[in-house]
């Protein structure tokens, strides 16, 4: 079996990762194309977050290969991997992880600032994304002053502000009620589609997964990639 | 759904012709399944027979769709009673899915595979409904949400059953 998959943006093959005696990943397969939304589903503790962290180059797998855009992630240096994360990946987690001391627009602008953009340029682009996610009126507020659903939309704007090719979202609606969660999913997937970004979406909720194009199920650290099996 | 009660309810706002009733029904409730004219007429003649509607006028040109119907007091009472009576919650104890899983276990087939296949099929339906909901109006959203929540309930059952397959297998093959 080959490790690359024609047309895929990101492919993983036979990923293994153990934490002591726990086999968090035990032969996981994955692939995603540009512009595709793939849901990673499975019971609690099955290895979904571990898979996402490996795919994003945050956690190194014990063995297996991860190919991003023709490059082998596991063979890169730490510095190369974090440069890749900053420039090509975006992240949204269950709890927004916004910087509490900054205003919402400063939070969204932060990734651009870190990449060297001027404050004015960064905040203008940031505000554009906040408008798309319908939270531009919150620009001057701090994360502590907005609701969970609003904060999550701000976090999605921040994840998309650099124009990532790949967005990683781990339970992005996990802390929201269904109405807010679905609105976040709608805006997130619309925004990703409009920029042709691929989305890796970890969720155990079927109604959230229904916003994806296809799903990959993880059980006991094993996942099958249906596309690959065909 | 009770077509009779729905048509009666539509008449409460004023008399309507048969074709007008069908159009109003299709527009508001018939998303997937528009009524046949035949259904409208057989329903209306039943309602007439029971005194729940009366003929309020007939347009020139003939044909049953030219009849104009009006609701009677008895009809209004009937609608009120229908709306006030709760629906019996459906119990799915003898669901096909349960039967399939148990049968697979009894015959030593791969029950997990059956659950996986079913889950994929459920998700496929949920994707279609989600898409329709995104593109639709508020009525579409409400109808799709109802279906989505039911499919979700099924899926949760599938998940839970998948997690308990070993126990279930022990129980049914003992
Ligand atoms: N840093 C860690 N140290 C030790 N064990 C870990 C660590 N991260 C994950 N694990 C273990 O690996 C397994 C998989 O965990 P993971 O977080 O990937 O599951 P998950 O599918 O994301 O679950 P959930 O739906 O609850 O978020 C679990 O048994 C977990 O306890
Ligand atoms: Mg997790």
Automatic annotation (TrEMBL), chain A:
GO molecular function: ATP binding; ATP hydrolysis activity; transmembrane transporter activity
One Pfam match: ABC_tran
UniProt key word Phosphoprotein: no
Keyword Transport: yes
Residue span(s) of domain ABC transporter: 10-230
Cellular component annotations (GO), alphabetically ordered: plasma membrane
Keyword annotations from UniProtKB, A to Z: ATP-binding, Nucleotide-binding, Transport
Name of this protein: Putative ABC transport system ATP-binding protein
The species this protein was found in: Streptomyces echinatus
Lineage: Bacteria, Bacillati, Actinomycetota, Actinomycetes, Kitasatosporales
TrEMBL record, chain B:
Origin: domain of life: Bacteria
Pfam families: PadR (PF03551)
InterPro entries assigned to the protein according to its UniProt record, in alphabetical order: Tscrpt_reg_PadR_N, WH-like_DNA-bd_sf, WH_DNA-bd_sf
Record's signal peptide: none
Gene Ontology molecular function: any one: DNA binding
Keyword Amino-acid biosynthesis among UniProt keywords: no
Regions that span the bilayer: none
Domain Transcription regulator PadR N-terminal, residue spans: 7-77
Record key words, sorted: DNA-binding
SUPFAM superfamilies reported for this sequence: Winged helix' DNA-binding domain
Protein name: DNA-binding PadR family transcriptional regulator
């Amino acid at each position: 079996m080959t490790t690359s998959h024609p047309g895929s943006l990101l492919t993983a093959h036979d990923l293994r990762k153990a934490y002591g005696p726990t086999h968090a990943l035990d032969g996981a397969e994955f692939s995603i194309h540009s512009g595709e939304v793939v849901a990673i589903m499975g019971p609690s503790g099955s290895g979904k977050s571990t898979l996402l962290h490996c795919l994003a180059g945050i956690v190194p797998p014990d063995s297996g290969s991860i190919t991003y855009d023709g490059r082998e992630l596991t063979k890169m240096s730490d510095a190369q991997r974090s440069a890749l994360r900053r420039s090509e990946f975006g992240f949204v987690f269950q709890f927004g992880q916004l910087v509490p001391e900054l205003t919402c627009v400063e939070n969204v602008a932060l990734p651009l600032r870190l990449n060297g953009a001027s404050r004015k340029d960064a905040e203008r682009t940031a505000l554009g994304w906040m408008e798309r996610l319908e939270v531009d009126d919150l620009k001057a507020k701090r994360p502590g002053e907005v609701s969970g659903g609003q904060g999550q939309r701000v976090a999605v704007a921040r994840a998309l502000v650099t124009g990532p090719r790949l967005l990683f979202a781990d339970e992005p609606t996990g802390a929201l009620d269904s109405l807010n969660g679905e609105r976040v999913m709608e805006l997130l997937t619309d925004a990703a589609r409009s920029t042709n970004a691929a989305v890796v979406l970890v969720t155990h909720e079927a109604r959230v997964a229904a916003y994806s194009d296809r799903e990959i199920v993880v059980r006991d650290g094993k996942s099958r990639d249906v596309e690959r099996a065909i | 759904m009770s077509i009779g009660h729905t048509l009666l309810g539509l008449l409460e706002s004023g008399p309507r012709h048969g074709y007008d009733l069908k159009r109003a029904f299709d527009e508001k409730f018939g998303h997937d399944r528009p009524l046949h004219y035949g259904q409208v007429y057989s329903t209306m003649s039943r309602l007439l027979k029971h005194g729940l509607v009366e003929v309020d006028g007939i347009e020139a040109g003939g044909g049953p769709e030219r009849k104009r119907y009006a609701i009677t007091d008895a009809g209004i009472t009937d609608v009120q009673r229908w709306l006030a009576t709760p629906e019996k919650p459906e119990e799915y104890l003898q669901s096909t899915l349960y039967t399939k899983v148990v049968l697979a276990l009894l015959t030593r087939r791969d029950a997990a595979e059956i659950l996986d296949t079913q889950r994929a099929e459920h998700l496929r339906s949920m994707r279609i409904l989600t898409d329709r909901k995104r593109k639709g109006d508020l009525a579409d959203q409400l109808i799709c949400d109802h279906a989505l929540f039911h499919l979700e309930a099924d899926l949760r059952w599938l998940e839970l059953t998948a997690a308990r397959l070993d126990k279930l297998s022990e129980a049914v093959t003992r």
